[in-house]
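Reproducibility note. Readers wishing to regenerate the assembly model reported in the main text can use the exact inputs given here. Chain order matters: entities are listed in the order in which they were concatenated for prediction.
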Amino acid sequence: MGKRVSRGGDLGGGVWKRQKVTHEAPTSEEITTSRQLQQLLAFDQDATHARHGLQSFKLFLDETLAWRRQNNADNVAILKEYLQAVKPTSEGEDGAQDPEQQQAVYLPDIMQAWAFAYQTSNENLMSAVPVVLALLLKLLSRSLDMVPYGLGICRTLLQKRQLELVSKNLSADKGKAFIVSPTLRMLREAMALDGGAIAKPLFRARASTFKSLARNMGIIHIGDEPEMEDRPSTRTTAIYFFLCALKFLHPEAKRELLSQRDIVAALTRDIKQDPIHLVLEMLSTFRDSILLDDKIPREAKGNLFNVSTLVRISSLYQYRQDPDSTQPSVADAAHEFLLAACTRPSGGILRQDTGLYPRDIDPDAVLPTADIDELGLDAMPWMDKYKSEVPVRNFVLSNLLQNLRPWSSVKQNELVTAIFRVAPELVASFFFENKSFTFEPKLTATWIGYAAFLFNTVLLPIPEHFSRGSGFPQLPPPISVVLGTILPLPLTQKALVRCLTSNSKLVSFFATRILVVAIEKLDAAVKMHHADTHANKALWAEAARRLVDEFCQRIPGMKDMIQAYRSIPEEDALHREAGSRLLRLCYTVIPQVALLAKFDVSPLLDASLGRLAKDEVEDPKDFALGLKELENLLAIAGFSPGMRWFSASDALVGLAPFTVLLRVCIDAPSGIALEEIFRVLGFVAAEQQVVLSRKGHPGLLPLVEALQGLSRDMTAHVWPFLDNCLSRCAAAPVKYLEAVQTLAEEVDGLEADAFISPLIATMLEQLPFVVKAGDKDLLAALGKFLPKFLGLSATVGESKPLLDGVYSKISQVLKEGQAKLTHKRIPDAVAFKHNVWPLRDKATRTTDRPGVGSKNGKEDTAMDAEELEGALSAADGLTADHSALTKWVTKTADEIVDDGHATGLVVLLASEHASIRQEALVNLQKMAAKVRESEYEDKDQVWLLLSELVETARAHNVAAAPLPSPAVAFACHALRVLHDPLSSLYAKVNGFLMRGPVWNLGQLPLVDEILLEDPEVGDSYYAQVNWLLGYLVDALRTPQDLELFHKRRQRGPVLQRLLALAANPYMRLPLRTQLLRLLYKATGIEGGSTTLTTRFGVVNWLEEQEKACLEAKEGGSREPARLYRALRGRVWQTCDRGRVGLWSKGGVEELCQGQEALQPESMDVD
Amino acid sequence: MSTQPTKTPDADVNSEFTSYYLHRATQEFAEDLDKVRTAEDFKNDALNVLVNALQQGTAMFSPEEQRRVVESRGAGGSKA
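Running the prediction on these inputs yields the following structure tokens for the assembly.
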């Protein structure tokens, strides 16, 4: 380092001492003319004079800037005159600006003074010049006609000589703020002049104009007092200059500026200590000039919005601001900025992630099918890899998140969840990296904030398709990552159990709510795993199972959840609602966990009903909330086979839950929606056969409407009677169905399908006891209620004559009790006033199951395999009993035929043992002879049948193979016909026997005769078809038998013609069921279902039958529809799926899968 | 089943439901809330956090469920 050279005079003693800087106040004078101004500013080598002039000019400018427009006209005129006078002469009149003219020097005296300041090291002058120029430019920018002077001055500043001075000023010592700050102000004014007209060249000269900017940004205000707005620090001035540049520079220049790391770093380094106005201006400029400027490349924005900047801006959440300040909140502004910056895709911060798929995996990788089949999810080596960390694309946001405290501030909570929403990959990773925080319950503000944050996180939706693509990727996302978004890591089973069982109700409430939203989210995730569009369905299904399993291991056991619900005080409606909602969700979404625990919902339901039935609820909203809890419990009851709907409960003052539920609905405050509860009531009533479940019948509606028509006092009397009737009817539905039939028999000329509700029969039965008891109030109430109820029953389509019959009986009974009905007969066309009838919605509420949403628009529950077997499996009519070989010998001819000895023997022809068959053949021959020799009335026909059978068996060589089942079955069924000469088939069977001694085993006897020919005997067509189907069911036992059914024939295969029978709209249910039995049997034969499907399109046939059944006007039971659907499922289960799938291109599978999917549910709820 | 009264706009329903929810929550958890207020870390934004935490539970109720609760205004029985 060179020796410092003294620039001053004699310092005395020769010893260098730092000179004490003294700022002598400059003198000044008032300016009244431009001439005076010109003289004052004329260059003078006397620094004192120079300062005097500049100071006078400064005061003049200050004054002019401070005055209002009308008062400063004189000053402006003086200034204008001065500027005109000193305007460089080299500039042409036309204002053309050639390079030479660019060199024209404006205010040459001032510029010379500035240069002189450096020649003489006069710091006061170094400062005074930019002070004056900054003020002058500020003033000139206000007036359009003076802007050209300003531009001229700016161009002068851009000349090499002045740029050097600017550069020197800017890089003055750190302590020389009085030199640096005015220079920055001057540059800022120059930058902003005329809408940034000179910004570009100013930036081009950045080596000088932006000199030491980063350093200058670091010259902060020092002192105990806060920085005053009218005395800004160098940092403040520097940043304002920089912000001004951002506003007026073009995108490319901004990109260049943002790449200056030192400037970017200095910009926000002390932001927490910066004055409010500066911070607000910074945030606003960052947003408007960078964030929202789509012409700036993302990378350039990213240079500014790096982790440090974001963390520093996030520190503004704690910015100290006077709460009474009228200025906008810095914390709010920072929050708004961060929200926009972190979530805007073009903001330079957010990077496109791949949803729940970590950065380093390819979700569309094609795995060998063999691997998938063999290894399942293990075929993906990464499936279990992400248990403690997940690589993410958004590392900037990830780092920012680690610096936020979402539990301590609502805004930070909002910011973090907003980031999670746009970058779902960060959810799991955030909790992996933030392990220090546990969810151990503690009743503090921090714990509550954390619970709120977790709740918001869980509430976030799962990204569509788990990724960003327009469809699901080939492979499912890692389970740990999905689970991490559903049940974030801090939500451990241990912590959740402790929360649920905590002494603090609030803690338990918060944990319950989190679990509710978590299970709902799990449900959504599982449904996405089961979407139809997955290519690897099995793989996705396995992932869904694993997800559910792992979820179940992380949540508290069902017992804990039930216990937590039980321990909620009665009056805590909100908490109870949440608790019951949690249990309901467990039953619907994770029944495998829910059903593990023994849970009798009855007492809780009773308690809930009891609360609602009390008349103490003050706020109707509380009542509505209580109803919501009740709905949840009712849904759970739907899963609870032990629910005792019609048993009197002590908790309900001796009434049954069903009655109390009805009462709650009837007495509910007006305006409360009760659809859900009425639906449950309707379902239970229909299931217990208290009301009719016919299509088009509204179930409980007439009863509800009748009760609603009574005053509250009157219904109060009716409830015990109604409860008694409902309980009795539910306990013995058959008894009252029979009672209805008995009543029907007493009425003449009834239509065949006349019906009334069994409950009416129960009421009729119980009425005498009421009369006997002599409760006058009840009798009076019934006098009004019963006509209304019966009238409404007639309105909804129950038999009017039958109801009239009941009404007259009721009338008589009441008369005995000296009571009377309000009407002499059932009122006609009683209208519904409280309810809508006819129902607008086709779906009847009588068949909906509580707690189980209807699927695919089908309202019935599915039938399981066992139930289907029970309904359609026919006993084998050809069961072999070897004792038949000997038993018949001692019997008489009529015993042989009437008691079934003959059929027993015939059956043995189909035995699998050759010796038995041969022995049976010999015995049949003997039997035929015995019958013929007997006195038996139909001996000839029986002999003929047996003889023909023997001949046929011989021709078939029964020793080698069993006689085909059709022949055996026909013989057995024909024998029964011959036994009954009144049978409508007697002639046809005899006609068949007369045709020849040997039967054609390639034919199914009598099929054509019955299906095509005249039945001969009256209207016996259906009886004959029934017989035919009965024998054909027995005839179908082996694949060879089935061949006869689908063999091509002149009139089409037999099975095809049988299926066509169903097109007959008059064919009744028993016959249709018989046909279904035949099909069911075929499905049990090897290849049967495949043949049925590929040759006869039986799946579509079943579907059509089901539809027709559901649409049938006659209504009634939905049993057949369920049968059709269940049988369709069985066809799919038993067919060659590969072949059928190929044949139908997946259509059959699609039709039948719905059935399969329904089955487990039906088993769960039944 | 019964005919519904004129419908209130969704925003009103939400705001009324939130206010009801908060009222109920403060009633049910009054004791615990007092304890939280006296906790050491109850400062700065804690009150806002607490209120926000309580009312976020309204998200569990669908707009329809909120409407059902809010619109059950009529006092007394349906045929009082």
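We highlight two features of this model. The two ends of chain B are 18 Å apart (CA to CA). Confidence is low (pLDDT under 50) at residues 1-5, 74-80 of chain B.
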